[in-house]
Amino acid sequence: MSKNFDVVVIGGGPGGYIAAIRAAQLGFSTACIDEWKNAKNGPAPGGTCTNVGCIPSKALLQSSEHYEHAGHAFGDHGIEVKGLSMNVAQMLARKETIVKQNNDGILYLFKKNKVTFFHGRGSFVKGDANGYEIKVAGATEETITGKHIIVATGSNPRALPNAAFDEKLILSNTGALAIDAVPKKLGVIGAGVIGLEMGSVWRRLGSEVTVLEALPAFLGAVDEQIAKEAHKLFAKQGLAISLGVKIGSITAGKKDVTVEYTDDKGNAQKAVFDKLIVSIGRVPNTIGLNAEGIGLKLDERGFITVDGDCKTSLPNVWAVGDVVRGPMLAHKAEEEGVAVAERIAGQHGHVNFNTIPWVIYTSPEIAWVGKTEQQLKAEGVAYKAGTFPFMANGRARALGDTSGMVKFLADAKTDEILGVHIIGPMASELISEAVVAMEFRASAEDIARICHAHPSLSEATKEAALAVDKRSLNF
Ligand code: FAD
Ligand code: NAI
């Protein structure tokens, strides 16, 4: 097997494995190194996203949603469920099967595209513009070379300084996805994306969930109107969310964990939980890469420094995904991976940071692209807004899921769409229309004039676009 490659990718998450496949498609001899191990110490490419992120979290969200529907919503349809129970072990086994299908799928794609896979940790040995030596430390140790290196080593969960993850009582995303019995009382520190998704899973299965958030505003990055609606709906579902708290001591006992904190009124509080999820953001991962030894520049927060093209401080070394600036999202990592492979080939790969969609997979889902209303106000941009509630959408009524709305923000003069915000059923799917529209720099009127199937949730998108011009038809 040749050990000299045109392109060596370090990290096999969404940024890395996609970069490797695209590089191979473009005719480069390509290697991808990933160190993730499955329970049998075998390779498990796919990174955080596949192993302890996007995929397993969505599997648990689906299982818990079915359980909740069977318990509460089916009665409406005349479906009677007796003796409902939750087999957590089976739910976790299903999740593991889905993860393995994805791991195996990536190994198959590597074979199909002739990407050489190395299982182990990759680290820089030496190199310059002519090429780099990379040591791969796995079951055996070997050295390979690459003319171009793409670093895609991802991120790790951030721990609180006084509460290391033990994954038994104090859980990162890894432990939160593997809780083997429904905790009676579940604490969550951080009301961000992971806190809300994981909090929702265990609340649906019967946990009493308390979410403690440092900031005074709920979901500060989300459009305020949508965040307000989400806060109301989550509180109604039973998520106890406390904002503006200051976390003090965290003490793990034998079977529970005690959190002392100050609430938003300055009162000292104490809560005891069976499990505690700490989801306060993630930090870039350059552990074991020998970045310092090779002179690869990191910024003050530990991210690999890159320019707009994902070029690092070293010639022919590129970096993509969570380990560089920008949103920590799988699809952002993938887009950067593709763009870098194309740039290596002399093409004009591009990533439009203005049209990267966000989705929070709670129920209802929250999805958005572009600017929020508060951002437009702060930037002094004159805009028009239009909203349409799912309550007035026939398909949403038939589904029995009428919470939320679609909101359009368009330039006051040109009518160009500046942002679209959705809270409601299948928001994760509906947002794609808005992304396409913004990528083509469409106006709200363009969407308003497009024929949308009836009855469909997407009619709410059309109606919100019509509402920008105050002429929605069904509300
Ligand atoms: P990673 O996926 O972290 O992959 C990096 C890989 O590199 C890992 O396999 C790691 O083992 C390997 N590696 C690191 N260093 C080395 C080395 N020196 N040698 C060899 N291998 C190495 N994003 C979404 O867009 N949608 C979601 O629904 C979503 N859900 C999430 C849910 C959770 C619970 C979490 C934690 C994250 C979620 N994310 C989601 C974020 C998403 O997982 C990340 O943005 C994405 O995985 C980043 O991809 P990456 O390729 O940059 O890094
Ligand atoms: P996050 O950044 O989404 O949320 C962290 C929250 O913790 C913030 O609200 C922050 O104010 C709060 N916080 C920080 N320090 C705190 C403290 N000391 N005490 C109390 N609260 C504190 O980070 P999260 O949820 O850990 O997720 C990490 C990243 O993973 C996300 O930002 C996102 O990029 C990605 N992700 C994406 C998902 C998706 O796309 N659906 C799902 C899950 C994760």
Automatic annotation (TrEMBL):
<feature type="active site" description="Proton acceptor">
    <location>
        <position position="454"/>
    </location>
</feature>
<comment type="similarity">
    <text>Belongs to the class-I pyridine nucleotide-disulfide oxidoreductase family.</text>
</comment>
<dbReference type="InterPro" id="IPR006258">
    <property type="entry name" value="Lipoamide_DH"/>
</dbReference>
<keyword id="KW-0963">Cytoplasm</keyword>
<feature type="binding site">
    <location>
        <position position="122"/>
    </location>
    <ligand>
        <name>FAD</name>
    </ligand>
</feature>
<feature type="binding site">
    <location>
        <begin position="328"/>
        <end position="331"/>
    </location>
    <ligand>
        <name>FAD</name>
    </ligand>
</feature>
<keyword id="KW-0520">NAD</keyword>
<dbReference type="GO" id="GO:0004148">
    <property type="term" value="F:dihydrolipoyl dehydrogenase (NADH) activity"/>
</dbReference>
<keyword id="KW-0560">Oxidoreductase</keyword>
<feature type="domain" description="Pyridine nucleotide-disulphide oxidoreductase dimerisation">
    <location>
        <begin position="356"/>
        <end position="465"/>
    </location>
</feature>
<dbReference type="InterPro" id="IPR001100">
    <property type="entry name" value="Pyr_nuc-diS_OxRdtase"/>
</dbReference>
<feature type="binding site">
    <location>
        <begin position="153"/>
        <end position="155"/>
    </location>
    <ligand>
        <name>FAD</name>
    </ligand>
</feature>
<keyword id="KW-0676">Redox-active center</keyword>
<feature type="disulfide bond" description="Redox-active">
    <location>
        <begin position="49"/>
        <end position="54"/>
    </location>
</feature>
<feature type="binding site">
    <location>
        <position position="281"/>
    </location>
    <ligand>
        <name>NAD(+)</name>
    </ligand>
</feature>
<dbReference type="GO" id="GO:0050660">
    <property type="term" value="F:flavin adenine dinucleotide binding"/>
</dbReference>
<dbReference type="GO" id="GO:0006103">
    <property type="term" value="P:2-oxoglutarate metabolic process"/>
</dbReference>
<dbReference type="InterPro" id="IPR036188">
    <property type="entry name" value="FAD/NAD-bd_sf"/>
</dbReference>
<dbReference type="InterPro" id="IPR050151">
    <property type="entry name" value="Class-I_Pyr_Nuc-Dis_Oxidored"/>
</dbReference>
<feature type="binding site">
    <location>
        <position position="58"/>
    </location>
    <ligand>
        <name>FAD</name>
    </ligand>
</feature>
<feature type="binding site">
    <location>
        <begin position="190"/>
        <end position="197"/>
    </location>
    <ligand>
        <name>NAD(+)</name>
    </ligand>
</feature>
<dbReference type="InterPro" id="IPR004099">
    <property type="entry name" value="Pyr_nucl-diS_OxRdtase_dimer"/>
</dbReference>
<feature type="binding site">
    <location>
        <position position="213"/>
    </location>
    <ligand>
        <name>NAD(+)</name>
    </ligand>
</feature>
<dbReference type="Pfam" id="PF07992">
    <property type="entry name" value="Pyr_redox_2"/>
</dbReference>
<keyword id="KW-0274">FAD</keyword>
<feature type="binding site">
    <location>
        <position position="322"/>
    </location>
    <ligand>
        <name>FAD</name>
    </ligand>
</feature>
<feature type="domain" description="FAD/NAD(P)-binding">
    <location>
        <begin position="5"/>
        <end position="337"/>
    </location>
</feature>
<dbReference type="GO" id="GO:0005737">
    <property type="term" value="C:cytoplasm"/>
</dbReference>
<keyword id="KW-0285">Flavoprotein</keyword>
<dbReference type="Pfam" id="PF02852">
    <property type="entry name" value="Pyr_redox_dim"/>
</dbReference>
<dbReference type="InterPro" id="IPR023753">
    <property type="entry name" value="FAD/NAD-binding_dom"/>
</dbReference>
<dbReference type="InterPro" id="IPR016156">
    <property type="entry name" value="FAD/NAD-linked_Rdtase_dimer_sf"/>
</dbReference>
<keyword id="KW-0547">Nucleotide-binding</keyword>
<protein>
    <recommendedName>
        <fullName>Dihydrolipoyl dehydrogenase</fullName>
        <ecNumber>1.8.1.4</ecNumber>
    </recommendedName>
</protein>
